[in-house]
Amino acid sequence: MAANGAPAGLTQGSGTKGGIGESTLRPDGVLKVTGEFAYASDMWHEDMLWGQILRSTVAHAEIVSVDTGEALATPGVYAVMTYDDLPTDVRHYGLEIRDTPVLAHGKVRHHGEPVAIVAADHPETARRAAAKIKVEYRELPLVTDEASATAPGAVLVHEHRTDHHSGHVPHPNIVHRQPIVRGDAAAAAARADVIVTGDYHFGMQDQAFLGPESGLAVPGEDGGVDLYIATQWLHSDLRQIAPVLGLPEDKVRMTLSGVGGAFGGREDLSMQIHACLLALRTGKPVKMVYNRFESFFGHVHRHPARLHYEHGATRDGRLTHVRCRIVLDGGAYASASPAVVGNAASLSVGPYVCEDVDIEALALYSNNPPCGAMRGFGAVQACFAYEAQMDKVAAGLGLDPVEFRRINAMEQGTLMPTGQPVDSPAPVAELLRRVKAMPMPPERQWESSEGADVRQLPGGLSNTTHGEGVVRGVGYAVGIKNVGFSEGFDDYSTARVRLEAVGGRPVVTVHTAMAEVGQGGVTVHAQIARTELGVTQVTIRPADTRVGSAGSTSASRQTYVTGGAIKHACELVRERVLELGRRRFGSYHPAWATAGLLLEGGKVVTDGGEVLADLVDVLEDEAVEVEEEWRHRPTQPFDPRTGQGDGHVQYSFAAHRAVVEVDTELGLVKVIELACAQDVGKALNPLSVVGQIQGGTVQGLGIAVMEEIVVDPVTAKVQNPSFTDYLLPTILDTPALPVDVLELADDHAPYGLRGVGEAPTLSSTPAVLAAIRDATGLALDRTPVRPEHLTGTAGSDRHPQDPPGGARNVTPSAPPGAPAKSRSARGT
How far is CA 715 from CA 44, 66, 366, 721, in A? Predict the structure, then answer.
C-alpha cells in the first residue's frame, strides 16, 4: 500500500478524465434503453437461411428410428441433418467432459435434447419442416434423484464413462464428488452445548436472460466459416466447435454479437455447432434464433440441491464443528458440474471460523435438464443452507443472529476449510455492522390520510388486503464467494493495446476477446487505458478470436483478469513510448532520464506535473502496439480425499438485511427493502459497482420467493418453459436496494479490486427467507417460498418440485430389464 493509501501497483496518475474511480457512462447504454442496440438476434445477411432444431419430446428413451423424408420434401428446405450426417468422428462436446452429443444418437437423455436440425428459406418453413420429422422412441426408466441414481442396479445415464472424474466417484451416475475433512468433527461435536441439524432444498433457477440464444454462421470462400454469436467465452466455444466441423481453429472465425444477458447460461454451447453445420452443408449463411420456449431447453440452469447440515456451538457462541452433505442435480450432461461441486464444498461453511469440518459435495447425472454455470456457481445453494443454520444455532443459544455471526466471523488470516489462508481483507463483521446500522424503512408505509395504498402491501394492485393480517419480518445473511477460476485452472487473459496519433490526437485501441454480456467490461477497459496511458480517446474493438483468449465472462473475473491484462499491456506500451521520447527529446531536459515519468492528458509529464512533451510529438507517425497475456496467482487442485489445497485466488463478501411484510392469511410476501453492504476492494466504476450489487441482489430475491423451473418427477419434463409460468421479479417486485460500498484493497489484485457481481446473489436469498421466518415463525427450508408454504395448504405429502397446488402422482419406474414402452412421436 502506498503512503497515500492507493494500492501498490497503481503505476499511473489519474489526471486524465474518465479514468478508474469515476462513474463514466456505458458507451452502449443509450442505444440499449432506446432499443437501437444491435443484439445477435438482429443480425441479417442477404440470401440467408433459417435454422431450426427438432428436440426430443421425452426425457429418456432409445431412438428406434428417425424419418426425415417428409421434412426434406418440404418446399424451401435446403438441408436436414441428424447424427449420421455429421462430417467427422468428433461428435461430442463439453466444457470439461465431452459427453454431450451434437445431435442425439442411440438415445435421448433429457426432455428437449436436439435430435435433428433443419435449414430453410423462412423461419416458419424451417419450424414446420422440423415438426414433420418422425422419431420413434422406446422409453427407458428414468433417473430423477439420488435414490434412483445410486440404487443397486440403477440405470446408467452414461454407460461407458472414461473421463478423469470417473475413477474417483462411488457410482457412475455421480459426475464428481469432493470431500473436505479438516480437524475432527466427531470429537468437536462432543464439546458442543448446542447441536442443530437441518435438511434444505434449493430449486432449479433459470438465468432468464432477456436476449434468447442466437447466432449467424456465414460460410467462407476458404472452406471455413465465420460465426457471429452471443456467448460468454469465444475461445472455449472455438475449442469445442472446430473439431466437430473438421476444421482448424483458424478457419472458424468467431465474433461476439450483441449479448442480451448471460449469468452463466451462455458458457455452454447452444446452437453454435448447428448453425455452422447447416451453413457448411448448404453453402449459405444460416441464422438461428431460439424462441423463449426453446431457450428454456437450450441452455443449462442452476443446479437444484438437497443439503443436510449439522452445526454445533458452545454456550459462549463459538462454532465447534460443521458437518454437511450437498447433493447437486447436474442433469443429463456434465457441463460445469465438477467445478460447481468444488465451489459448493469449499465454500460450504461460509465466512466463519470453524476448525473442525466434515463435508461432502457431489453432483449427479440424471434425466433432468442439464445444469451448469449460473451466477454464484455452487456457493448460492450452500449459503442458503448455512445461513439458515446460523439462525437456528443463534436461536438455540438465545443470541442475536447478527451478534452470533459477528462472534464467528472470519478475518484476514483465517484458514478456510480447505486449509487455505484468507490473505486479503475479510471484513465480515464490519459488513454485518454496516448493514445492521442502515436506517430501517418506516413501518406501515401503506397508510395515508386517504386510506391504504395497496401498491405498498403484499398482493399489490390485486387489492387482497388493506393491512389486516400483515406482519413485518427482518432477516440477515452474509456470504463468501470465490473470484476467478480455481483448482489449478490456468486462468489468464490476453490484451492487445495500440497507441498512435490519429488526426493530430493520441488514440488508444484496446482489443480483447472478452464477452461483454452487460456487466460493463467495455466501460472499465476504456477507463484502465485512460488511467495508464493518459489518453482520453479510447476505442474498444469488437471481441473476436483474432486476438488471444480472454477467458469466460463469469466467476466475477473479467475486471480482475482481462482488466489486469489491459493494465499490463498498457504499462508495456507506456514504457516503449517513454523510451521513444527519451530517444527523441532526452537531450532537451534532464527529467527524461528519471524513472518517475507519467502520461497524463495526452502529454508526458514528471511526477511533479511538469510537461515534457505532447504524446503526438513523441509518436509522430509511429504506432506502439503490444499484445500480452496476464495471469493471476496460481491455484491448486483440491485433494480428492481431504479437500485440502489453495484452490481459490480471491474471496468476496457481501451482507444483506431484508425487510419483508407478509400477509399471513394468504401467504403473500412483499419485500420492502434489501439493503446490502459489500467490500469491493476498489470501485473502478462506482456506478457500475452499485448496479452489479443491485442486480445480483434482485436475482437472489427471485429464487427466494418466485423463480423455479418445475420438473415433473414422474416424466422428468419441464412444466413451465415460458415467462408466463416461470415467474421473474419485475420492477414492481423490486424493493428499495440501498448499498454501502466498502473499499479495502486486495494487494494481490490489479488496483486492489475485488470481483463484485456474484457475492450479492448469495446472501440476498437467505436474508429474505430469514425475514419471512421472522414474520411467520415458520421453519422454511426450501426455495422458492410459495404462498401454500406460508398458509399450511401445501400438504405434507407434496413433492417440492410439484407445481403450486399440484398433487404428486408417483408411479414406480420400471426396473432394469423390464419391458419398455414404445411409441412414435413428432418432435416439438
Answer: 39, 22, 12, 15
Instruction: Compute the distance between CA of residue 437 and CA of residue 785 in angstroms, rounded to an integer.
Output: 27
Cβ atoms 471, 754 nearer than 8 A: no
Helix (H) or strand (E) holding 132: helix 123-132
| Integer Cα distance of 471 and 469 in angstroms | 6
Q: How would you classify residue 278: left for phi > 0, otherwise alpha for psi between -120 and 50, otherwise beta?
A: alpha
- DSSP 8-class letter at 78: E
- The residues pairing with 647 across neighbouring beta strands, listed in sequence order, are none
Strand partners, 550: none
Least Cα distance to 585 among 604, 569, 608, 564 occurs for 604
Q: Is 265 helix (H, G, I), strand (E, B) or coil?
A: coil
Instruction: Give just the sign of the alpha carbon dihedral 645, 648, 649, 651.
Output: negative
**Do 702 and 695 meet the contact criterion of CB atoms below 8 Å apart?**
no
| CA-based nearest residue to 408, from 426, 420, 396, 424 | 426
* CA atoms of 694 and 686, how far apart (whole Å): 12
Between strands 134-139 and 822-826, the pairing is antiparallel
Grid cell, residue 619, equals: 509518436
Cβ neighbourhood burial of 812 (10 Å; 0-12, 13-18, 19+)? exposed
Give the C-alpha separation, 428 to 410, whole Å.
6
pLDDT along the chain (828 residues), means of 10: 34 73 95 95 96 98 98 98 98 98 98 98 98 98 98 96 95 98 98 98 98 98 98 98 98 98 97 98 98 97 98 98 98 98 98 98 98 98 98 98 98 98 98 98 87 89 90 98 97 98 97 97 98 97 98 97 98 98 92 93 94 96 97 97 98 98 96 98 98 98 98 98 97 96 98 97 98 97 97 62 35 32 37
In which element (H, E) is residue 508 found? strand 505-511
Q: Are the C-beta atoms of residues 379 and 347 closer than 8 Å to each other? A: yes
List Cα–Cα distances, 259 to 41, 275, 509, 543, 580, in angstroms: 9, 17, 22, 12, 40
Helix (H, G, I), strand (E, B) or coil at 733: coil
Torsion from C-alpha of 690, 692, 697, 700, nearest 10 degrees: -170
**CA–CA separation, 417 vs 722, rounded Å?**
40
